[in-house]
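I would love for you to help me understand the pair of lines that follows before we discuss the fold together.
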Amino acid sequence: MRDPAGPRLIQVGIFTATRWEFNAIRNALVVQDEQRIGRYRAVLGRRGHAQVLLVRTGLGVASGEAAYREALTSHRLELAISSGFACALSASAIGDLLVGTEVLVSSAGAALQSGGQVISCSKERQVQAMGAAREADVTARAGRFVTVPHVVWRAEEKRAVAAMTGAIGLDMESAAVGAVAAEQGTPFVVLRTVSDLPDEDLPLDFNLFLSPSGWMRGTFACLTHPSCLVGLKRFRAQVARASERMSRFFVKFLEGLE
Protein backbone atom coordinates (compact mmCIF):
# COMPACT_ATOMS: atom_id res chain seq x y z
CA MET A 1 0.00 0.00 0.00
CA ARG A 2 1.28 3.48 -0.87
CA ASP A 3 0.37 6.64 0.96
CA PRO A 4 -0.30 9.26 -1.78
CA ALA A 5 1.66 11.77 0.29
CA GLY A 6 4.66 9.59 1.06
CA PRO A 7 6.56 6.32 0.71
CA ARG A 8 5.14 2.84 0.52
CA LEU A 9 3.68 1.52 3.79
CA ILE A 10 4.37 -2.00 5.04
CA GLN A 11 1.20 -3.76 6.18
CA VAL A 12 1.69 -5.16 9.69
CA GLY A 13 -0.71 -7.26 11.74
CA ILE A 14 -0.15 -7.40 15.50
CA PHE A 15 -2.18 -9.97 17.40
CA THR A 16 -2.51 -9.77 21.17
CA ALA A 17 -4.82 -11.51 23.61
CA THR A 18 -5.91 -9.14 26.38
CA ARG A 19 -6.95 -5.52 26.73
CA TRP A 20 -3.81 -4.69 28.76
CA GLU A 21 -1.54 -5.94 25.98
CA PHE A 22 -3.74 -4.35 23.32
CA ASN A 23 -3.63 -0.95 25.05
CA ALA A 24 0.14 -1.11 25.56
CA ILE A 25 0.74 -1.54 21.84
CA ARG A 26 -1.98 0.94 20.93
CA ASN A 27 0.01 3.55 22.88
CA ALA A 28 2.84 3.15 20.35
CA LEU A 29 0.54 3.98 17.40
CA VAL A 30 -1.01 7.04 15.86
CA VAL A 31 -4.53 5.60 15.78
CA GLN A 32 -6.49 6.29 12.61
CA ASP A 33 -9.58 4.15 13.03
CA GLU A 34 -11.41 1.90 15.51
CA GLN A 35 -12.66 -1.28 13.87
CA ARG A 36 -14.55 -4.49 14.49
CA ILE A 37 -13.22 -7.47 12.57
CA GLY A 38 -15.98 -9.98 13.01
CA ARG A 39 -16.30 -10.23 16.81
CA TYR A 40 -12.77 -8.94 17.45
CA ARG A 41 -11.79 -5.44 18.51
CA ALA A 42 -9.12 -3.81 16.34
CA VAL A 43 -7.52 -0.48 15.59
CA LEU A 44 -5.81 0.73 12.45
CA GLY A 45 -2.82 2.95 13.08
CA ARG A 46 0.51 4.26 11.83
CA ARG A 47 4.07 4.50 13.09
CA GLY A 48 6.86 5.38 10.72
CA HIS A 49 6.38 3.50 7.44
CA ALA A 50 4.21 0.84 9.08
CA GLN A 51 0.46 0.63 8.60
CA VAL A 52 -0.61 -1.44 11.60
CA LEU A 53 -3.70 -3.53 12.17
CA LEU A 54 -3.78 -4.28 15.91
CA VAL A 55 -6.22 -7.05 16.86
CA ARG A 56 -7.33 -8.24 20.29
CA THR A 57 -7.81 -11.98 19.86
CA GLY A 58 -8.74 -13.26 23.30
CA LEU A 59 -6.85 -16.05 25.05
CA GLY A 60 -5.74 -19.31 23.51
CA VAL A 61 -4.80 -20.88 20.19
CA ALA A 62 -8.37 -21.20 18.90
CA SER A 63 -9.03 -17.49 19.42
CA GLY A 64 -5.67 -16.53 17.95
CA GLU A 65 -6.26 -18.51 14.78
CA ALA A 66 -9.85 -17.33 14.35
CA ALA A 67 -8.92 -13.67 14.77
CA TYR A 68 -6.09 -13.90 12.23
CA ARG A 69 -8.32 -15.64 9.68
CA GLU A 70 -11.01 -13.03 10.21
CA ALA A 71 -8.45 -10.28 9.61
CA LEU A 72 -7.46 -11.89 6.33
CA THR A 73 -10.95 -11.31 4.92
CA SER A 74 -10.32 -7.56 4.78
CA HIS A 75 -6.57 -7.00 5.16
CA ARG A 76 -3.47 -8.21 3.31
CA LEU A 77 -0.59 -8.51 5.75
CA GLU A 78 3.13 -8.45 4.98
CA LEU A 79 4.26 -9.14 8.54
CA ALA A 80 2.46 -10.97 11.35
CA ILE A 81 3.46 -10.38 14.97
CA SER A 82 2.32 -12.30 18.02
CA SER A 83 2.75 -9.93 20.93
CA GLY A 84 1.77 -9.20 24.49
CA PHE A 85 3.08 -10.63 27.73
CA ALA A 86 5.05 -13.81 28.29
CA CYS A 87 5.97 -16.07 31.13
CA ALA A 88 9.77 -16.19 31.23
CA LEU A 89 11.22 -19.71 31.36
CA SER A 90 14.82 -18.63 31.89
CA ALA A 91 16.64 -15.95 33.87
CA SER A 92 14.93 -12.63 33.09
CA ALA A 93 13.62 -9.46 34.65
CA ILE A 94 10.09 -8.11 34.51
CA GLY A 95 9.71 -6.02 31.35
CA ASP A 96 12.51 -7.73 29.39
CA LEU A 97 11.74 -8.31 25.73
CA LEU A 98 11.70 -11.91 24.51
CA VAL A 99 12.19 -12.29 20.75
CA GLY A 100 11.06 -15.59 19.31
CA THR A 101 13.40 -17.53 17.03
CA GLU A 102 10.85 -20.34 16.69
CA VAL A 103 7.65 -21.54 18.35
CA LEU A 104 7.15 -25.06 19.61
CA VAL A 105 3.60 -26.33 19.25
CA SER A 106 3.02 -28.83 22.01
CA SER A 107 0.51 -30.16 24.48
CA ALA A 108 0.84 -28.98 28.07
CA GLY A 109 0.95 -30.56 31.46
CA ALA A 110 3.05 -33.30 33.00
CA ALA A 111 3.31 -35.17 29.70
CA LEU A 112 4.55 -32.18 27.67
CA GLN A 113 7.11 -33.25 25.08
CA SER A 114 9.64 -31.30 23.02
CA GLY A 115 8.96 -33.17 19.79
CA GLY A 116 5.99 -31.11 18.59
CA GLN A 117 5.68 -29.02 15.47
CA VAL A 118 8.11 -26.09 15.22
CA ILE A 119 7.27 -22.82 13.47
CA SER A 120 10.19 -20.62 12.46
CA CYS A 121 10.29 -16.86 12.97
CA SER A 122 11.68 -14.32 10.50
CA LYS A 123 15.42 -13.94 11.06
CA GLU A 124 15.37 -10.47 9.52
CA ARG A 125 12.74 -9.28 12.01
CA GLN A 126 14.54 -10.94 14.92
CA VAL A 127 17.67 -8.92 14.14
CA GLN A 128 15.64 -5.75 13.72
CA ALA A 129 13.83 -6.36 17.03
CA MET A 130 17.09 -6.76 18.93
CA GLY A 131 18.36 -3.50 17.46
CA ALA A 132 15.11 -1.67 18.27
CA ALA A 133 15.30 -2.95 21.86
CA ARG A 134 18.78 -1.46 22.23
CA GLU A 135 17.54 1.87 20.90
CA ALA A 136 14.60 1.77 23.32
CA ASP A 137 16.86 0.80 26.24
CA VAL A 138 14.91 -2.43 26.76
CA THR A 139 16.83 -5.58 27.70
CA ALA A 140 16.17 -8.28 25.09
CA ARG A 141 16.89 -11.97 24.58
CA ALA A 142 16.18 -14.21 21.59
CA GLY A 143 15.20 -17.87 21.76
CA ARG A 144 12.51 -20.49 21.44
CA PHE A 145 8.92 -19.97 22.57
CA VAL A 146 6.46 -22.67 23.52
CA THR A 147 2.68 -22.29 23.22
CA VAL A 148 0.47 -24.20 25.66
CA PRO A 149 -3.34 -24.44 26.00
CA HIS A 150 -3.65 -23.33 29.62
CA VAL A 151 -2.18 -20.79 32.04
CA VAL A 152 1.00 -22.19 33.60
CA TRP A 153 0.81 -20.57 37.02
CA ARG A 154 2.91 -22.74 39.31
CA ALA A 155 6.68 -22.24 39.40
CA GLU A 156 7.16 -26.00 39.49
CA GLU A 157 5.33 -26.44 36.19
CA LYS A 158 7.17 -23.51 34.61
CA ARG A 159 10.49 -25.16 35.43
CA ALA A 160 9.27 -28.47 34.03
CA VAL A 161 8.20 -26.87 30.75
CA ALA A 162 11.54 -25.06 30.49
CA ALA A 163 13.49 -28.28 31.05
CA MET A 164 11.44 -30.24 28.51
CA THR A 165 11.43 -27.64 25.73
CA GLY A 166 14.51 -25.43 26.11
CA ALA A 167 12.24 -22.42 25.59
CA ILE A 168 12.91 -18.95 27.00
CA GLY A 169 9.26 -17.90 27.00
CA LEU A 170 5.76 -19.31 27.17
CA ASP A 171 2.40 -18.06 25.87
CA MET A 172 -1.00 -19.29 24.71
CA GLU A 173 -1.39 -17.81 21.19
CA SER A 174 1.86 -17.56 19.20
CA ALA A 175 1.66 -21.03 17.66
CA ALA A 176 -1.74 -20.25 16.16
CA VAL A 177 -0.63 -16.90 14.72
CA GLY A 178 2.55 -18.48 13.38
CA ALA A 179 0.73 -21.41 11.78
CA VAL A 180 -1.65 -19.15 9.83
CA ALA A 181 1.26 -16.89 8.82
CA ALA A 182 3.21 -19.90 7.53
CA GLU A 183 0.16 -21.06 5.60
CA GLN A 184 -0.12 -17.62 3.97
CA GLY A 185 3.63 -17.29 3.32
CA THR A 186 3.77 -14.22 5.58
CA PRO A 187 6.88 -13.41 7.65
CA PHE A 188 6.17 -13.95 11.34
CA VAL A 189 7.83 -13.05 14.63
CA VAL A 190 7.07 -13.25 18.36
CA LEU A 191 7.77 -10.07 20.37
CA ARG A 192 6.67 -10.25 24.01
CA THR A 193 7.63 -8.64 27.30
CA VAL A 194 8.05 -10.60 30.52
CA SER A 195 5.18 -10.33 33.01
CA ASP A 196 6.08 -13.22 35.32
CA LEU A 197 9.24 -15.11 36.21
CA PRO A 198 10.10 -18.83 36.24
CA ASP A 199 10.66 -19.04 39.98
CA GLU A 200 7.38 -17.45 41.10
CA ASP A 201 3.78 -18.65 41.28
CA LEU A 202 1.08 -16.41 39.87
CA PRO A 203 -1.18 -15.07 42.63
CA LEU A 204 -3.94 -17.52 41.76
CA ASP A 205 -4.96 -20.08 39.15
CA PHE A 206 -6.07 -17.83 36.27
CA ASN A 207 -7.38 -20.89 34.44
CA LEU A 208 -10.49 -20.48 36.60
CA PHE A 209 -11.35 -17.35 34.61
CA LEU A 210 -11.13 -19.00 31.19
CA SER A 211 -14.71 -20.28 31.41
CA PRO A 212 -17.89 -18.49 32.55
CA SER A 213 -18.50 -21.12 35.24
CA GLY A 214 -15.05 -20.55 36.72
CA TRP A 215 -15.41 -16.84 37.45
CA MET A 216 -17.35 -17.39 40.68
CA ARG A 217 -14.83 -19.94 41.96
CA GLY A 218 -11.91 -17.72 41.04
CA THR A 219 -13.43 -14.68 42.74
CA PHE A 220 -14.25 -16.69 45.84
CA ALA A 221 -10.73 -18.11 46.01
CA CYS A 222 -9.25 -14.63 45.83
CA LEU A 223 -11.58 -13.07 48.40
CA THR A 224 -11.03 -15.85 50.92
CA HIS A 225 -7.22 -15.79 50.70
CA PRO A 226 -5.72 -12.40 51.68
CA SER A 227 -2.34 -13.44 50.27
CA CYS A 228 -4.02 -13.62 46.85
CA LEU A 229 -4.89 -9.92 47.02
CA VAL A 230 -1.30 -9.06 47.90
CA GLY A 231 -0.11 -11.20 45.01
CA LEU A 232 -2.53 -9.55 42.59
CA LYS A 233 -1.22 -6.12 43.59
CA ARG A 234 2.33 -7.29 42.90
CA PHE A 235 1.29 -8.83 39.56
CA ARG A 236 -0.50 -5.64 38.56
CA ALA A 237 2.75 -3.71 39.07
CA GLN A 238 4.60 -6.30 36.95
CA VAL A 239 2.04 -5.95 34.16
CA ALA A 240 2.39 -2.17 34.27
CA ARG A 241 6.16 -2.45 33.88
CA ALA A 242 5.82 -4.97 31.03
CA SER A 243 3.30 -2.66 29.32
CA GLU A 244 5.58 0.38 29.54
CA ARG A 245 8.51 -1.55 28.07
CA MET A 246 6.31 -2.91 25.29
CA SER A 247 5.07 0.52 24.27
CA ARG A 248 8.60 1.93 24.28
CA PHE A 249 9.95 -0.96 22.23
CA PHE A 250 7.23 -0.86 19.58
CA VAL A 251 7.80 2.82 18.89
CA LYS A 252 11.38 2.04 17.84
CA PHE A 253 10.58 -1.27 16.14
CA LEU A 254 7.81 0.09 13.93
CA GLU A 255 9.77 3.23 13.07
CA GLY A 256 12.56 0.97 11.79
CA LEU A 257 10.37 -1.07 9.44
CA GLU A 258 10.97 -0.62 5.73
